[in-house]
Design a protein that fits this description.
mainly alpha; Rossmann fold; 4 domains; two-stranded parallel sheet; 48% helix; elongated; binds glutamic acid
Length: 491
């Protein structure tokens, strides 16, 4: 595919430009991290620009949440509404004059024109185009107004928009770093509205003007924006500016390959934070959606990612947002943490309510191996502090070959061993428990399963004898005897 010399050595100015119309989206994190990594790797600048020209849907709390969510992922912008910077303001709603001024320049050059058509006329025009099954789009009526007439009607306060005067002949071409040359027939490009009746710019005008004025050198964004590029290229040409490099990255997808959506996948970065996904795991997982490091490792640190990231290596296949994979990455990252660090994350993140940090630290060896999300901690560790309902169904299945009365006898003796040998080494305790099973001639696995279900409630749990230590020998014995009674009652 197209290669750009010096892409990873020349300081890159990149940006992410979310609209603050909802919770911080994983797609924003995914696009942001590629842009951030390239700016960081090359010693450039990474800009977070808020595209809030849709005033009806934009909310300042969403803006704050987006900035916070990116910061949580470890993505800090060099320039943003919060950080400031030399090219601000970084909120489009505060740049109205800049857009009006630039739109004026285009009108003067004849590259844009005022359109006074009412919404009724436009509706009629569309209906007629539809009925005739002809080309849709603005028919250019106001293009023929003289400069004088246009200016004087505007001066009289007649409502109008400003449209791009698209030259309908020829083609517009641009090169996408990941997809090669893309070309579109100009006759398919509508005379795009640039400035709305209320004087607000549309996405196209604001985006192009800002990317230019902010010095953006490469635009990495989701592939859904490809159809906008011809209009943007025409705008760059009209302003006589050179366009930045484009790299349209693949969209994140649901399992059925449709664009990732709330109905099929949680899409808010905050949801992942609150479930106890580590930011470094999210970042690793999101990076993997479109990119692989050289030796095809799946796990890497943020530093390794930044050091190696090359946009040329982004693949354009439709990545599926696979929760099982994310949980795997998260589990691996959880195991890489020192117990100290993990205890802090659990307590500070609100995942260990009712536990002090030291208490968490004390039981972590039981859980660090098993956690896939930090939010599982309270549930997995419940048995340590509370009696949990034993899984009798599971017990029956797993100990089918042992006469229940015999198992009950064995468990009674095991309860005895747990208290009499409390404090002895696990090897010694285990030998004593094995001797019980051997004496009664049943498999030791059945005895351990009985104890495990009595003490932890479940068939799958952290290791047995460390669990006995955490629960306490007396309490473990009591739970074992309670299970024996249940066995007798159901026999
Ligand atoms: N405001 C657009 C968005 O919400 C920005 C698209 C672009 O990066 O040009 O994604």
């Amino acid at each position: 595919m197209a290669r750009l010399e010096g892409l990873t050595t020349t300081p890159a100015v990149t940006r992410v430009a979310p609209s603050p119309t909802g919770d911080p989206h994983v797609g924003t994190g995914y696009v942001a991290l590629f842009n951030w990594a390239l700016a960081k790797r090359t010693g450039g600048r990474f800009i977070l620009r808020i595209e809030d020209t849709d005033q009806a849907r934009s909310r300042s709390e969403h803006e704050g949440a987006i900035i916070d969510a990116l910061a949580w992922l470890g993505i800090e912008a060099d320039e943003s509404p919060r950080a400031g910077g030399d090219y601000g303001p970084y909120r489009q709603s505060e740049r109205g004059e800049i857009y009006a001024d630039h739109c004026g320049q285009l009108i003067e050059k004849g590259a844009a024109y005022r359109c006074f058509c009412t919404s009724e006329r436009l509706a009629e025009m569309r209906a007629a185009q539809k009925a005739a099954k002809g080309q849709m789009g603005y028919d250019g009526l106001c293009r023929s107004l003289t400069a004088h007439e246009s200016a004087s009607r505007a001066a009289d306060g007649e409502p109008h928009v400003v449209r791009l005067a698209v030259d309908k002949s020829g083609v517009t071409r641009f090169t996408d770093l990941l997809r090669g040359e893309i070309e579109i027939q100009n006759r398919e490009v509508d005379d795009q509205v640039l400035l709305k009746t209320d004087g607000m710019p549309t996405y196209h005008l604001a985006n192009v003007v800002d990317d230019h004025l902010m010095g953006v050198t490469i635009i990495m964004r989701a592939e859904e924006w490809i159809p906008s590029v011809p209009k943007h290229v025409m705008l760059y040409d009209a302003f006589e500016w050179s366009a930045p490099t484009y790299a349209h990255v693949p969209l994140l997808r649901n399992a059925d390959k449709s664009k990732i959506s709330k109905r099929k996948n949680p899409t808010s970065i905050l949801w992942y934070r609150d479930e106890g996904f580590l930011p470094e795991a999210m970042l690793n997982f999101l990076a993997l959606q479109g990119w692989r490091p050289n030796e095809d490792r799946e796990l890497f640190t943020t530093e390794e990612f930044v050091a190696e990231f090359d946009p040329h290596a982004i693949s354009t296949g439709g990545p599926v947002f696979d929760m099982t994979k994310l949980e795997w990455v998260n589990g691996e990252k959880i195991r890489e943490l020192s117990p100290d660090e993990l205890a802090s994350r659990l307590t500070n993140g609100g995942f260990a309510e009712g536990w002090t940090r030291d208490e968490v630290l004390g039981v972590l060896p039981l859980f660090q191996e098993r956690l896939k999300r930090l939010s599982e901690f309270l549930d997995q560790s419940r048995y340590i502090r509370e009696t949990v309902e034993p899984d009798m169904e599971g017990l029956r299945k797993k100990t089918k070959k042992v006469e229940p009365a015999l198992l009950a006898t064995g468990l009674r003796e095991a309860a005895e061993v747990l208290t009499s040998m409390a404090g002895k080494s696990h090897d010694e305790q285990e030998a004593a428990l094995r001797a019980i099973a051997d004496r009664h001639e049943f498999k030791v696995g059945a005895l351990f399963m009985g104890l495990r279900i009595a003490i932890t409630g479940a068939m799958a749990s952290p290791p047995l004898l460390p669990s006995v230590d955490a629960v306490g020998a007396e309490e473990s014995a009591r739970r074992t005897l309670a299970l024996v009674e249940q066995l007798a009652a159901t026999a």
